[in-house]
Amino acid sequence: MPGVPKTQGCQTCKLRKIKCDETWPSCAHCRKSNLVCPGPTQLLKFMSFQTPGKKKQRVITSKQHDAAGVWRSLQRRGARSAAQPGGEQGVVMIPQPISPTDGERSVSRLVAHLNTGLKKIGCLNLSFAVHLPKRLAESTCLRDSVDFFCRALADFQNPYPQGAVLAFPQYGKALKSLRMALAGDEALKAETLAAVAMMERSSSLLDRWGRTENIHFKAALQIMRQRGSMGRVNANDELDVALCRDLHQQAMFGWTVKEADESQEVVPWEEAFARVARAQEKASLMQPLALEDLAALSGCCTHLNARVSQFQSWLKEPDAKNKLKSATWNQDLSEMERTMTELSDALAENGLRQGHMVLLPMDADHFLAMRYHFSWPLLCLLYIVQLFTQLVALTVMQATHSILHGERSKLLHARLRKVAIEVWKCGPYLQSLDPMIGPFPTAPIYATYEIANLKEKEYVLDLVRYLDSCWGHLPETREEQRLYLSKMALVLTGRDPNTPYF
């Protein structure tokens, strides 16, 4: 029919005279060109049919009259046409689809990402995303933050990304609506907290190398503090529960990093470990950790970091005076490692008993006999980072023993192997998760590399390659990657005196 589009291709592709692949909400050409796709062309229009030789009459459109007037006019014309077959004018009214609202566009984009794998990334602090589509209509700031996230995700997947946060107009729009929400009655709502969390994830996507400080996560923690103890989670709100779990998990990414922040509390390690035991009980019961628990965990690692830094100083100047100090440090580290082992063993025992951790068999040709499966990635993160603290303490003790006595301790090596195998048993579970949005901590994996034999080293390398697949931190060739892992194992366990330990 003349004047009626033959395909639903978007208007941008038609103006450029290229074939549109019609993959909505945005076609491939618009995504590649970083353009806003106008969507499918409407196939249904008001059409005028005119008898040859007669004067052309004006066709009534919905823009010229209100809907009721147009309908009455069309009814009158249709009646005349029916009374006079072959009459002068016939008008066919074909309804046009209503343009989607901003909220509907945000929902469609987010649902499209969820359907293509985003919902599998619970370990990466976005498990709450599955609850967002039905909440976007309730919050302008959440809708704008989701728009920014979808744009940041598209840029992250682009082989030639822009990368700079300020280059995106969606960022300024999201900041403006978020500022208005924080200044009003919506400041402590779950939707506002989710908007801040989406801003944090978007900024992380655009800053792949972590060169800038992400202030949005600190804003999320501040909102949780203002909401009260445990973030005042509404147990009846699925979004609120999932959101607080993800944010608490995100907070644990900074366990081994020294920060000048009020949430990082330095406490005696004996007291800190007692509080860690309570935090582990909450994690094994699938409850969110309180911020004071995270501060205690940070206090444990701060004490461990101090001992490792002292060890590095000794490596630079291994004089006789410091030898006596190193023996004292080793005794302190030994007591800490023993307490860490008791707590990690208790965590595994409780998790297995309650069904939150499950031991499954590996393939017959694999060097591991069993593997772990976790009911929630937070529990895996808590377990694997605790194993990392044991690896650091044991490795420093082993290095000190070798320097003092001129030989390696077989007992310490056996304990290192036992902890490394526990880390490797978590590997298949990590590989079942999508690493696209944010990196799972690779430090525990790196720390096991030197402990492994040749076959185990290849397994560790494959695991690190998978976790790094979307971030590109590793060198290109496999041989260079082996050297990189060896170097990182030294750095992360404090045995590189030229690299400050955290």
Automatic annotation (TrEMBL):
Keyword Nucleus recorded? yes
Q: Matching PANTHER family, A to Z?
A: TRANSCRIPTION FACTOR DOMAIN-CONTAINING PROTEIN-RELATED, ZN(2)-C6 FUNGAL-TYPE DOMAIN-CONTAINING PROTEIN-RELATED
SUPFAM superfamilies listed in its UniProt record: Zn2/Cys6 DNA-binding domain
Q: Which PROSITE patterns match?
A: ZN2_CY6_FUNGAL_1, ZN2_CY6_FUNGAL_2
Give the species. Bionectria ochroleuca
Please state every residue range assigned to the domain named Zn(2)-C6 fungal-type.
9-37
Alphabetically list the UniProt keywords: Nucleus
The cross-references to Gene3D superfamilies, in alphabetical order and at most eight, read: Zn(2)-C6 fungal-type DNA-binding domain
Can you say what this protein is called?
Zn(2)-C6 fungal-type domain-containing protein
Q: Name one Pfam family in it.
A: Zn_clus
